[in-house]
Amino acid sequence: MADLIVGIQWGDEGKGKIVDALAKDYDFVVRYQGGHNAGHTIVVGEKKYALHLIPSGVITPHCKNIIGNGVVIDLQALLDEIEQFGDLQGRLFISDRAHLILPFHQERDIMSEAESKTAIGTTGKGIGPTYCDKVGRIGIRMCDLHDLDALESRILERKDLEDRQTKSIMKLLKHTAHKILPFIADTASMLWQAQKNGQKILLEGAQGSMLDIDHGTYPFVTSSTTIASGACSGSGLPPKAVQKVIGICKAYCTRVGNGAFPSEEFGEIGELLRKKGAEFGTTTGRARRCGWFDAVAARYACNLNGCDELALMKLDVLDGFEEVKVCVGYEYRGQKIDYVPSDLDNTKPIYETYAGWKSSANTTKYDELEPNAQSYINALEKLVGVKISIISTGADRSKSIYR
Fold first, then answer.
1. What angle do CA 86, 89, 93 make, to 5 degrees?
2. pLDDT score at 87
3. Residue 267 and which of 63, 116, 252, 403 are 20 to 30 A apart at CA?
4. Is 40 among the catalytic positions?
């Protein structure tokens, strides 16, 4: 059976740490959507790893790591990432059905943002345009790298590309294809066989549920299905293969890019959360927008994903606050509501306030948390309706509480 890790906020929840911590119990870790616009930071002792495409199970020696068909891949970015780990042959596998991000995709992404009156706030990595080509049935897949001559003929037939773009594409592919080919495989078949063998699979999502292309804060969303259902289409596993869904959320909220964020704090509180939480993007270094925990959005995301349990990250960032707030409802068109409307921009947060606590940092036992910290966790469980089974109290994989 397969278990699933999914973000239930706007991304950057700390999924990498949880995947890394749990990977020892799994044979395969599978990344199933998004591209190198995502970033997972993993801290092991004094060593810090920044991952963008390679699954977070790469730190665990016995794990096989799969980049699924739902991921879009920048070849040079992937090769640069592989280099920090040395020889990954036999441990890293890339779906032959995954689509390639090419230089002109990035050009279009950057140009679209520059020309738009309502910029999304993308990373400019070419993710959206690549998914557009995929849906438009003109995309280039990993399997196409086996025959570069045939691929060049296809590229030359495209009317939307200039000569310089075509030359740039072929130069890149001729430089990188032979380095990537050893990792390309029919990964769906690998996972089906793993199931038959009784091996354990952990599915790893990127971004967060509130950035889902269908259910997020559209149009300020990413270009893929970030919720649990995307794990099946992005890996090749059937829905009945998913046994447990673990939602990941911070003890507060952050967001990168533009779009609705009802519980955002614009003043001193937001800046303090950003500073204490080191809230700067793994991929871009951009400062993240920060605010209080949004229980309405979290409950919505848990329902979308069918979360069985939650991991609450960065509890220690709230250490020292005299009080902490939780968004428990919205003011919306003159009414109080407790659900996420499709136009979340038109809402204002309704807060409940909880007493703060002095310190939770590095705590590894629940009963050693201060009573106010325990009360906060219990309140979040009731508001969201899902048990919090893991609580992170520090960046290192060992600084966690398991309930």
1. 115
2. 87
3. 116
4. yes
